[in-house]
Amino acid sequence: MIEMAEPVSQPHDPWLDLQPLLDQELSRLPEKYRVPIVLCDLEGLTYAQIGLVLGVPAGTVKFVAKNSGPDATPMCGASSSCCSRARATGS
User: Fold this and answer.
1) Is residue 21, in this structure, part of any structural domain at all?
2) Is residue 23 part of a domain?
3) Which of 23, 39, 34, 44 has the alpha carbon at shortest distance from 86?
4) Are 37 and 64 in contact (CB under 8 A)?
5) What is the pLDDT of residues 48-59, one digit of tens each?
6) Residue 5 forms part of a structural domain
7) In this predicted structure, what is the pLDDT of residue 67?
8) How far separated are the first and last CA of the chain, in Å rounded?
9) 38-70 as b/e, with b when 16 or more CB fall inside 10 Å?
10) Residue 45: per-residue pLDDT
11) How many domains is the chain built from?
């Protein structure tokens, strides 16, 4: 008799559960805040790259990121590179 191997299950990705909520909350933001957050935290662009995409200085992107209110989502780090991977890994 041939033994069948147990099916290998893929580990559940908890981010898949959060995606609909994230999409809903992002859609509530005004475009001038939503677009930089998406470009940095989801696409991994730096302040400089976001500035090029939006046609504004990197300093403007940084200002919006840091001054969009007390409930603002943290965007890019002080080094001008996106910090979403560091936040996700806890480093």
Assistant:
1) no
2) no
3) 44
4) no
5) 999 999 999 999
6) no
7) 74
8) 51
9) ebbbeeebbbbbbbeebeeebeebbebbeebee
10) 94
11) 1
